[in-house]
Design brief:
Length: 206
């Protein structure tokens, strides 16, 4: 099995998608996979579902994937738009490894959501080498409630989860700290009392 076939299997890709090229940059600490569809492949129209529509054009995209050991991994692909013969619309297809409008693969998003429930968001951002605002957009999509701020607070819950018995205590003027905390209206007012608005960098959910 050659490296591209090996990585096609490792990434869980299926026809017509496969790894066409692998670039390993050791000094930069990254591995880049060029993923491509078989030339001449046809795709279902995302708009009306008509099968076997021809590719109209492609758009180059990049997604951050799970690290391969200490190396950051990226998937690159030319994502096709199909021009549908049934509904006459031109629409970009969904790739099997990522949801629309995400710069992360689905596996990477699963890791982010898991880590952010156990660690401060800023720590996760440092660990993965990803900006915390980008992490926040993923948490937004999955409906997680959190506050992104200076340093320290680390809890994060899904809406509807009970959360801790009592909310964390803050003193006026203290730093709230990095990470997520559950935000409902009562907690939000405490957070606002406990710190300056400037430290509450980003509030989401609930
Ligand atoms: Zn169509």
């Amino acid at each position: 099995m050659n490296p591209t076939s090996l990585f096609t299997v490792a990434l869980g890709l299926q026809a017509p998608w496969g790894v066409a090229d692998v670039a390993f940059d050791r000094p930069a600490g990254r591995i880049d996979f060029q993923v491509a569809f078989t030339p001449g492949a046809r795709f279902a129209c995302p708009h009306c579902g008509a099968e076997h529509q021809p590719v109209h054009d492609t758009q180059e995209r990049e997604w951050r994937h799970l690290n391969f050991f200490q190396f950051e991994a990226y998937i690159h692909a030319k994502v096709p738009r199909v021009r549908c013969e049934a509904c006459a619309k031109t629409t970009q297809i969904a790739v099997p490894w990522a949801r629309a409008n995400s710069g992360f693969t689905q596996l990477m998003e699963a890791l982010i959501v898991t880590l952010c429930q156990a660690m401060p968001i800023r720590q996760v951002a440092q660990l993965l080498g990803v900006g915390d605002m980008r992490l926040g957009r993923t948490l937004d999509y999955y409906g997680l409630c959190y506050v992104l701020c200076g340093q320290g607070v680390r809890s994060l819950w899904f809406p509807g989860d009970p959360g801790p018995a009592s909310p964390p205590r803050w003193q006026r003027g203290s730093m709230l700290g990095a990470g997520g905390l559950r935000v409902d209206k009562a907690w939000m007012s405490q957070a606002t009392v406990g710190t300056s608005r400037g430290q509450l960098a980003w509030v989401s959910g609930c």
